[in-house]
Design goal:
The structure is a homodimer of 508-residue chains. With 508 residues, chain A is of the alpha/beta class. Chain A has 20 helices and 19 strands. The radius of gyration of chain A is 25 Å and the shape is globular. Strand 5 of chain A pairs antiparallel with strand 2 of chain B.
Amino acid sequence: MLADHNRHQLRIRRVPLDTGRENVVVISRRSKALRAEIFRGFSRVELSLNGKVLLATLLITDDDTLAAADEIGLSEPAFRRFGEAADTAVTVTPASAPESLEAVRAKIHGRTLTAAEIGAIIQDLAHYRYSDMEIAAFLIGSASFVTSDELLALTRAMAEVGTRLTWPDPVVVDKHCIGGIPGNRTSMVVVPIVAAHGLPIPKTSSRAITSPAGTADTMEVLARVNVGADEMKAIVSSCNGCVIWGGHVNLSPADDVLISVERPLSLDTREQMVASIMSKKIAAGSTHLLIDIPVGPTAKVTGALEAMRLRKLFEFVGDRFGRAVEVITTDGSQPIGNGIGPVLEANDVMAVLGNEPDAPRDLREKSLRLAAHLLEYDPKLRGGAGYQRARELLDSGAALKQMQRIIDAQGPSTCNTELGSRSFDVKAAQDGVVSAIDCLRLNRLARTAGAPLDKGAGIRLFKKIGDRVEQGEPLYRVYSFDQPEHDLAASAAAADSGYAIGGKSAGE
Amino acid sequence: MLADHNRHQLRIRRVPLDTGRENVVVISRRSKALRAEIFRGFSRVELSLNGKVLLATLLITDDDTLAAADEIGLSEPAFRRFGEAADTAVTVTPASAPESLEAVRAKIHGRTLTAAEIGAIIQDLAHYRYSDMEIAAFLIGSASFVTSDELLALTRAMAEVGTRLTWPDPVVVDKHCIGGIPGNRTSMVVVPIVAAHGLPIPKTSSRAITSPAGTADTMEVLARVNVGADEMKAIVSSCNGCVIWGGHVNLSPADDVLISVERPLSLDTREQMVASIMSKKIAAGSTHLLIDIPVGPTAKVTGALEAMRLRKLFEFVGDRFGRAVEVITTDGSQPIGNGIGPVLEANDVMAVLGNEPDAPRDLREKSLRLAAHLLEYDPKLRGGAGYQRARELLDSGAALKQMQRIIDAQGPSTCNTELGSRSFDVKAAQDGVVSAIDCLRLNRLARTAGAPLDKGAGIRLFKKIGDRVEQGEPLYRVYSFDQPEHDLAASAAAADSGYAIGGKSAGE
């Protein structure tokens, strides 16, 4: 038995390949453990050592500098996750597909899954046991129909697999936007308003995956966002609020895995979205939740019917888990605020909080409206007084002061927060009135310019829908740091500016 | 413009990584073309040179020996497909997802696709423009429903994207089994019988992807199977038949891509299977086609209802494309013949053709039955005379002689055709009667032992369903070459032999 064991052992070698989220390992075509081509038939391998197990996708090499015959090369994510030193001997065997994949196949063929089956899938997802293809299989297999029971089981399983937070307060509020609208950084205005009022609002946000900025990326311009659960509790206890990165708290690791496949495929299925958002909010311990669904021609939700179906799903799951959930639809026809990209968005947020005269009015108004809804959850506040209270807190500077407290509690930002040193203007091709702005196009353009990795890359909008423009007048300015990004963005903008300009103004 | 162009140029470096079918490239985290992390947001890159374009999935490295800042590392398949020498400068830009992916997303969300949309998807698949995740998205998105029009469009698009063969004869027959049954090498008996009769039967077969042998793998024990289209025509014109590898003829390249993702996911959807098989047969120019659907508890089709639905689909597509299609269901409860794995299966085939006394009766009878159906397509043969004619040709040695002609025409095998040097027996745990044999389990076991890569690895069955066994009596023998395969197979067989033994024989 021991001899048998040794025969499949290979020594770990660290391979300097960043394979994203997927575990990838490399073995030699002349591997001592088992012939590479035979492994390939199984397509995945299992590394084990003292009960620790890692599943990985296999690449084969003829080059000893990547993996010699007695070695197994671990790409960076696999090396990090397995957590063993180079040269450690590990047992390598062909991996069976995770058992829960049988349920995924059943789902693809139209069967309803039990809570136990869904739980097993989520466990395997959270522990990186699925390949990218297998993750896609689960997502798409569940895209055509998900029963109410499946949705509840999925939400519960996803909420239970990671960190769970609890709070001493009877009312813990939170807000969430389903995303897709550039510049829409309302959380960073809403949190200080609500926190200044005295309601706890422990906000965890995401980083961008395919968009030019997530709220966590933008907040990072102002403060540290890689904050753990214990520290988060201390911050909320002293400031009533925070705006931190959810990934660091590990609230719903299975969801993080699912999203990393959903985004590149541009998949947005209703039930998956509801389970994703609600699982994180349940794990985060919020009791009262406001969901923002922007509706517009290039938003994630393009019509009222789709918005209503989504609202009902959020309400249903909220009710079953005993959380107060309110869903509002908002204008998603164009970006909110003037900036797209972390630094530019952070500027917008601070201008609104600072009541600066040129602060973007749409960001201010939308944030006040959202804050008003959340403040109404305070039993001590008179019904209908939410909006006025929110405006008081913003206009008086109380919200700005609260934001400073939160920033101080989270700690200083360590990013380069300068605006991109290179820029170009995109100009109106004709006289007229801006009739439409393509959110997807601007998101992609800001991303091409370097956001969110370059905090100071992005887009500053000069014109919004309804604005009159003259031919040659700048519509927006694109910022980047390096020439390649600048060039790519310039040719992308030249191909399609994302702006439609019509013949007449709204007022005519 | 030229300056802009040069900025995104990197020099090709060949990276000794075998990434299977997927195009994978490696760039440095300090790449001169564009920052790696920014590329990652797009997840796929496009290489272009003089109008030639390659889409590839991106890995990032910190190691200059894989890709320096001014280089792009091409893994083996990408290097081969792009076909440019190392050090050639290529333009590298973030890749947009193939446009046809929009149709895949529409399909996932329940929309019916047009023929043009399906055609675009198939073109992109055949040209390796889809990532594995995107291929999975298409397969699973089409798993829940496919309309008749979609099925026809899919079949047509798949048939048209590769090589198309034409034959001078009015009747060109072919047979195809949907697969899943170990040892089921009827084609290698049927082709020489039918060819000896004088009907053209240009048979292209597949290689194993996850099974221990495809017909092409087994035929390769006896003759060369990597035969191109022109050579194939010459062979069929002189011998009436052939048994070659379809992949070399490139009959349905899109299907080859789809299958490479279907198999690891163990996806078998009805419409996909019909489009896959029918597109290859249409491209191969056959006019009369016999489809074999084995039915059994561990076969691909487990019940009569499912078999009937599949039959109707084959008939429907055949009718619309003007091909005579006949579908028969056969016993899929256990392996056919005694051998599993290329050499052992080839032995069975030659024993049947040689009328040897210990030739497996089930392989002989099934082959005769299939050949009988095909011979009935000969207008000159009296109706109902097919079986008798098939038996004459087999018993007289005419089929064996025809097989020798075909082998001579295809050319000699270059494989090691010895049986595995290591073996162990799996024995009955109790007295009784074999009541069931798990085809999936035996397939996996033969694969673990080294088949099809080791032609001589595999399983020789001593007992079939209904056979009486005594405790300790060998059920089957497992052959392999190297100790690691031997050990793995032995522990897999010890965990589950795949045999069920009941208390009473069928005769009692």
